[in-house]
Structure formats: C-alpha cells, structure tokens
TrEMBL record:
<dbReference type="InterPro" id="IPR017549">
    <property type="entry name" value="APMV_L690"/>
</dbReference>
<feature type="compositionally biased region" description="Low complexity">
    <location>
        <begin position="341"/>
        <end position="357"/>
    </location>
</feature>
<feature type="compositionally biased region" description="Polar residues">
    <location>
        <begin position="364"/>
        <end position="373"/>
    </location>
</feature>
<keyword id="KW-0732">Signal</keyword>
<feature type="signal peptide">
    <location>
        <begin position="1"/>
        <end position="25"/>
    </location>
</feature>
<feature type="region of interest" description="Disordered">
    <location>
        <begin position="335"/>
        <end position="373"/>
    </location>
</feature>
<protein>
    <recommendedName>
        <fullName>TIGR03118 family protein</fullName>
    </recommendedName>
</protein>
<dbReference type="InterPro" id="IPR015943">
    <property type="entry name" value="WD40/YVTN_repeat-like_dom_sf"/>
</dbReference>
Amino acid sequence: MRSRIITLCAVAVVMGAPLTAPAQATTNTRTKFDVVNLVSDVSGKAAVTDPKLVNPWGLAMGKTLWVSNAGTGSATVYSGEGRKQQTEVWIPGGAPTGQVVNPGEGFTVKGKPATFLFASPSGAITGWNAEVDPKNAIIGAFTRGADYKGLALAETDDGDFLLAADFAGGRIDAFDEDFKRVRLSRSAFRDRTVPRTYSPFNVEVINDSVYVAYALRDAETGKSVAGSGKGFVSRYNLEGRLTGRISRLGLNAPWAIVKAPEGLGQYADSLLVGNFGDGTIQAYRNNRHLGALRDNNGRKIALPGLWDLEPGTAANGGANSLWFSAGVDGGKHGLLGVIRPAGSRGSSPSTTSPTHNPTHRPTKSSQSPYGGY
C-alpha cells in the first residue's frame, strides 16, 4: 500500500443523489498488459528468489518498495527491478498485513517516530524506526480479539490517526499518534446496505475519500469467502460519512484499492480493485465497471492469492507500472511483480535505500471526524 496520508475536509452529501451509478460494464481491450514476475520464494518462478517472501500482503512505496510478508512475519525491501536490499524487519505482532509509511513525528517507538507502521491479524499495530532497532518493529497498540487486515493513515489538525480494518469486529478502528484507540461515532465508516455477514477487509484513501472493501466472512473459520459478486466497496468522505459505493460487478473478496497510474493506457486514473477471491484486477470509473485488466492475448489477468496493488515510480518499476503482491499456493508461497502496458519498459535498477522521510506532506485541514467522540 501507498503511504496513506489524507487531508480531512468537510464534504457535503447531496440529498437525494443516488449512491450508486448505473452498473454498466464496458468491453474495451485497447490496452493489454504484460505481467512480469520479479521476486518469489520459489526458485525459478521469478527473476529473484527470496525465501522471506511468503504470502506477501501490504506494499508501501518510498525510495524503495517495502513488502509485508505474512508467511514469515517480516518486512523486506526491494529496488526498482526487484533487487533485494539489506534491510529486513521482524514484525512482533506476527503475520503483517496492511502497511503504511509515516511521514510525521507521531507514533513514536522508544522515543523515535516510526517510519513504517504495520497491522496484524493478532490485533497488534507495530512501528519500526531504524535508529531504535534496525531489525525489529515494536508493538505500539494491541486490541484483543481484533483481526486487522488493512491499514490507512489520516492527517488532521487534531493530529495523525491510523485507520485499521477489523475483519473480526466488523468495523474500522482509529488510533491517535500516541497509539491510543479513539472512539468514533456509531455511524462513522458504516454502510447500512452492506449485510452484517460482510466485514471490512481493507481500508484505503484516495483523493480525499476513504474506501472500505468488504468481504463475506465465514463465521466458523474467520476467513473470507470467495465467489462472483461476493464483495462491496463503499466510499466515505473524510468525516466517515457514506458518499457512495462502486458497482458490485466484478467483485470477488476485494482487498486492493488503488488509483491507476497515468501511464496505464485506457485505465489511467480509474479506480482499480484487486480481488483476493479470483485474482483479477477490475477497473471502475464514476462507480461504473469498466472490466478486468487483460494480458497480451486478451485473457483476464488472474493472479492467485492477489493482495496489494501499488503504482510504480520512475525509480521503482516505472511510472506506467503497477506492482502486485500475491500469496500463491494458498498463501504457502509468495510472488512480487509488476504489470505494465504490453511492450513497454520499466525503470532501470535502483540502488537507493529505504525511505525514512517522504517529501510530500499535504496541508492539514481545519476539521476532523476524530475530535469530540
């Protein structure tokens, strides 16, 4: 996942406006894509073999790409063409899922601001700072019984807040920059049309909107249930008020939510949703379903165990690329790679070290949904 930094502002909800635009799928294959496997724990499956890359989930982009490996309880770092960097971090919360970059001075671990923050199904939120401990993250918060599958970062005048998708509790939890859980209103980040059998699977922030992906949860196993049409993606304003939802066409246990990079052909700047259920990547514009990304032969791209999607940069994969992580073979193994328009080229190898201070920091607004609750 990208550094999820948002600017909170009041967004009016137009009374009487439909929440969902008409669901109309379109067929358009002008842009086809190549899938390039870069890193895997399975020898011969990708250009680089890394035994630590098992069931990779969240991605965080800075000067290099950080990957949360649920299968090994670690975070690993890679350059533009998948070249592994020296930094390896153990996550004490276990099985890291969502991950974000922290550009601020909050969320301190042993007196230093965490550079990267991680969520875990154990209910732990952990932070890492190289000066404190280059090899280990430190637990900053713990919620008993929670199953955190996704993580986002919000910036407000009242401070910075983490948003965590609790798959077991069926809610979005918020933490202040002291790692203290804060109370939200009962209606915040809740969509009454989503059945109670569905739970927040991930949370993402794009263009001043908060997107929550919902998956059907098996009450006995606690796992997501795959199936065509089994999923919702609801959109909220930055105060947690429901403002819409995308078409359900194409959804199948959705997890990844990302704005497509400008170099992605006809899908540039559309909303891309990655399905864990069937491994496809579905595109939406104005809440309408555009279809699935397809390979050079016109077949739907299907990446078994697909988790995150992350836009590339000029130094990391290319500005026209889309990084992906997948827990292949039922999460027993892992795959990291890029998707880019067929025949195009990516970036040259990068030798820069992991980021410690992203340069972009948006202007804070004067309103926050987290104060007063």
